[in-house]
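Q: What residues go here?
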C-alpha cells in the first residue's frame, strides 16, 4: 500500500539553502518510509512527536519507520498550545536522551501547527540540530506552520518568542487525515488559503467562490497556498522582506487574538483582518469598491467571521506594539490590486476608522 497513489500526489519544492519537498495528497504520509533512503538516509533512531488526538496516526508512522529499519518511538506531548512550553520541550529533550538520539537521527512532528512548532524547535536544539520531517494534520499546518522553517514555543512574555529557524527535510501533507479534523479548524485554516489567493494567486479566489467550503478542491487549494508560501520563504527565509506579505490581514488579527486572550482561532481573526485590510486599501485608493467587497463576500461565504466589535482604542494600541510592526509605526500589508501586496505605513486615522467600521466596529465621535 505504501507508495500507492504516489504519482498522483502533488509536490512543491521549497527553495533555499537546503530545498525540501512538500508532498500533498491522499496517503502522502505513507511516503515516510521511502524518505529513509533519501532525506533521512543514515537515520538509525527517530522520535515521532504527537499529541493524544493523533496517537493512531503517529503509531502508524512509528511502524512505517520500524519496517524501514529505523528504531522509532512515539513521544506524546499535550494537545494544542499546551505543547508549546519550555517545560514540554525539556520533557521531550529528556525522552530523546533516553532514546539515544544522536546528531544523525531524526524527529518527526505529527499534528497541528502547535505540535509541529514544538517538534521543529526540539529538533533544532537537540545536539544543535537534527533532521525533522513534518507531518501536518491541520489545514493551517499544511499551508503555513509546518513549512517555512520557523519553529518555537511560547513564554510568559508572549507567543513564539523563543525559537529557531530550522527548515524540515520534508513535509508530508496527507489530505486523508483532514477527515478527522474538526470542521471549525478546517474553516479557520482555509482563512490562510484565501489570504494566499488575495496576495498572490487569484485562481484560489475563483476556486473558493465556486465552492466556499474548500472541500471540493482541497488538494489544489492546499497546493496553491503552499506554492505562495514556498515562493515567499524561498526568497526570504529569515523573514526580512517579501515574507512580510504573508502577514496580510494579520496586523488586526494579532491584536484581536491578544485582546481576546487567544480565545479566537487564529484563522478566524485573520478573516476579520482581511476585511479590515481590504477597506484600508479601498480608502487609500488602491482597491476598487468591487475588490474590497469581494473580500467580505468570500470570507462570509466560507463561514468565517467578517465582524469584530471590541474596544477600538485598545485594538489600536495593541496593533502599534505588534512585534511584526517594526517600531512604533503602524504597518499594514495592503493590496494595490488583487495579487499585488505592498506595505501601507501609518495610514490616515480616517482610513483606519473607516476600516474599523467596515468590520462592524463603532467609532467614538
Ligand atoms: N511556524 C510557523 O511559521 C507558524 C505559522 C502559523 C501558525 N503557527 C502556529 O501554529 C499553531 C496553530 O496551529 P493549528 O491551527 O493547526 O492549531 P493546533 O495545532 O492547536 O491544532 C488545533 C486542534 O486540532 C487538532 N487536530 C489537528 N489535526 C487534527 C486531525 N487531523 N484530526 C483531529 N484533530 C486534529 C489538534 O489536536 C488541536 O486540538 C499556533 O501555535 C501557531 O503559533 C506557526
Ligand atoms: Zn497566520
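A:
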Amino acid at each position: 500500500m505504501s507508495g500507492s497513489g504516489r504519482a498522483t500526489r502533488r509536490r512543491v519544492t521549497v527553495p533555499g539553502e537546503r530545498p525540501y519537498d512538500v508532498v500533498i495528497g491522499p496517503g502522502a504520509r505513507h511516503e515516510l518510509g521511502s524518505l529513509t533512503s533519501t532525506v533521512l538516509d543514515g537515520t538509525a533512531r527517530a522520535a515521532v512527536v504527537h499529541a493524544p488526538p493523533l496517537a493512531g496516526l503517529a503509531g502508524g508512522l512509528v511502524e512505517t519507520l520500524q519496517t524501514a529499519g529505523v528504531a522509532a518511538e512515539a513521544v506524546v506531548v499535550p494537545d494544542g498550545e499546551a505543547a508549546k512550553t519550555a517545560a514540554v520541550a525539556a520533557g521531550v529533550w529528556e525522552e530523546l536522551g533516553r532514546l539515544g538520539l544522536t546528531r544523525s537521527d531524526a524527529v518527526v512532528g505529527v499534528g497541528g501547527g502547535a505540535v509541529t512548532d514544538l517538534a521543529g524547535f526540539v529538533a533544532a536544539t537537540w545536539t544543535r540540530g537534527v533532521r525533522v520531517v513534518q507531518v501536518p494534520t491541520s489545514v493551517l499546518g499544511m499551508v503555513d506552520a509546518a513549512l517555512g522553517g520557523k519553529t518555537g514555543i511560547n513564554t510568559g512574555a508572549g507567543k513564539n518568542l523563543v525559537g529557531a529557524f530550522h527548515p524540515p527535510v520534508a513535509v508530508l501533507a496527507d489530505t486523508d487525515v483532514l477527515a478527522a479534523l474538526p470542521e471549525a479548524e478546517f474553516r479557520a485554516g482555509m482563512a490562510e488559503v484565501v489570504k494566499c489567493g488575495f496576495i498572490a494567486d487569484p485562481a484560489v479566489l475563483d476556486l473558493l467562490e465556486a465552492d466556499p467550503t474548500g472541500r471540493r478542491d482541497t488538494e489544489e487549494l492546499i497546493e496553491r497556498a503552499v506554492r505562495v508560501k514556498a515562493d515567499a520563504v524561498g526568497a526570504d527565509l529569515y523573514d526580512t522582506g517579501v515574507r512580510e506579505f504573508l502577514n496580510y490581514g494579520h496586523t488586526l488579527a494579532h491584536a484581536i487574538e491578544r485582546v481576546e486572550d487567544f480565545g479566537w482561532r487564529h484563522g478566524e481573526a485573520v478573516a476579520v483582518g482581511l476585511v479590515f485590510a481590504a477597506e484600508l486599501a479601498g480608502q487609500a485608493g488602491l482597491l476598487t469598491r468591487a475588490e474590497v467587497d469581494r473580500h467580505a463576500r468570500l470570507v462570509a461565504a466560507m463561514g468565517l467571521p467578517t465582524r469584530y466589535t471590541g474596544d477600538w482604542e485598545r485594538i489600536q494600541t495593541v496593533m502599534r506594539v505588534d512585534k511584526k510592526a517594526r517600531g512604533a509605526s503602524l504597518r499594514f500589508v495592503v493590496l494595490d490590486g488583487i495579487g499585488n501586496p505592498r506595505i501601507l505605513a501609518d495610514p490616515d486615522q480616517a482610513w483606519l476608522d473607516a476600516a474599523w467600521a467596515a468590520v462592524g466596529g463603532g467609532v467614538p465621535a
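A: Context that may help when evaluating the design: The mean pLDDT is 95. The longest strand covers residues 158-165.
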